[in-house]
Amino acid sequence: MKLLDSFKATVAVLAVAAVSASGVPAVADIKIGASLSQTGPASFLGDPEAKTLQMLVDEINEKGGIKGEKVQLILYDDGGDPNNGRTFATRLVEDDEVVAVIGGTTTGTTMAMIPVFEEAEIPFISLAGAVVIVEPVKKWVFKTPHTDKMACGKIYGDMKARGLTKVGLISGSGGFETSMREQCLALAGEYGIEIVADESYGPKDADMTPQLTKIGNTAGLQAVLNPGFGQGPAIVTRNFKQLNLQVPLYQSHGVASKSFIELAGDAAEGVRLPAAALLVADKLDGSDPQKAVVVGYRDAYEKATGKPVSTFGGHAYDAFMILVEAIERAGSADPAAIRDEIENTKGFVGTAGVVNMSAEDHMGLDLSAFRMLEIRNGDWTIVD
Question: Which segments of the protein form a coiled coil according to its record (predicted)?
Fold first, then answer.
């Protein structure tokens, strides 16, 4: 059964402009925008996001669209460049006249686009991780991934349960990494964690041995946490193993894909990180409300693309579903009505967790939405 058949016949919304068999472009009644990092350093995030949207769009339009109205996706590749993101955001509003936008693969591109959508009063669902996207609440801005602040809390809770209180940080220097470092520093005291070392690396660094050596020589060190995404965390993990540091290593949800395990190789064994249920779909209990959702999405994605699923494509799936249901409840494609219904999302079961939004919470997830995973024998294992 296709993905959309296994959920309400309401799935999905976005569409790549379809071309009919005669070669004449199809007429789209609902225009949705997206600016994603399909290429560039964040392509491992943006590519599955784009593939997910396109897959879902193909299905919804095959079934006649949303309540009989076809949908068109206006999709731009910002390459992870915030300047491109802002340019495309402006184009989506002024030239393409979209009614809503899904996108912002990275925190940097998201923050560059937010002012455009806030001024234009167009609902925007970000796929990036930093808490600053939704705190403080911005009227027209929402997000689907867990926040960096939540990741710090989940990791610290696990450390505390293991009796690990003296922690060294090694962080990337991008928008997400910088934000997560700040959140982890701010939350440490609340969990009884002492940050005994604090190092960083740049996006082009190919060896983090000097920073890790300094951290490893810190008196009393009990664990290391690496806020980062992309190739940086894989390098950190390999260097960590080479130095034979005898303490646990934690990564962020920014590496929650099989590609991290492949890049880090055997060095990934024993690494822990918080992630969505999607990565362990088959290992969920049958009574888990997320199981049908994550298994259905995973199977459909892997069949359509021939590639393993990642939580990043799952963020796009959740945004897509939330938006479609909001349009259906609103009964129109009016941006203000859509915004109000996104904010009214309650009990939505997605790949990230069960979403309950409100005027005070434009993400709608709590720590229970995170699963603590450990890499064992080259695969994910649930430890909490």
Answer: none
pTM for this prediction: 0.85
Structure-block tokens of residue 286: 């049958």
Tell me the pLDDT of the chain (384 aa) as tens digits.
444 444 333 333 333 433 333 333 444 489 999 999 999 989 999 999 999 999 998 889 998 999 889 999 999 999 999 999 999 999 999 999 999 999 999 999 999 999 999 999 999 999 998 899 999 999 999 999 999 999 999 999 999 999 999 999 999 998 889 999 999 999 999 999 999 999 999 988 999 999 999 999 999 999 999 999 889 999 999 999 999 999 999 999 989 888 899 999 999 999 999 999 999 999 999 999 999 999 999 999 999 999 999 899 999 999 999 999 999 999 999 999 999 999 999 999 999 999 999 999 999 999 989 999 999 999 999 998
Domain interval for residue 212: 148-275
Residues 97 and 17 in one domain: yes
Residue 158 and residue 115 share a domain: no
What is the C-alpha separation between 44 and 53, in angstroms, rounded? 15
Identify whether residues 191 and 245 lie together within a single domain: yes
372 domain residue, yes or no: no
Pairing of strands 100-103, 124-126: parallel
Strand order in the sheet with 194-200: 194-200, 166-171, 223-226, 249-251, 272-275, 371-376, 379-382
Report the CATH number that the domain containing residue 32 is assigned in CATH.
Answer: 3.40.50.2300
Task: Return all residues near 303 (Cβ < 8 A) that are at least 6 apart.
Answer: none
Domain-located, residue 371: no
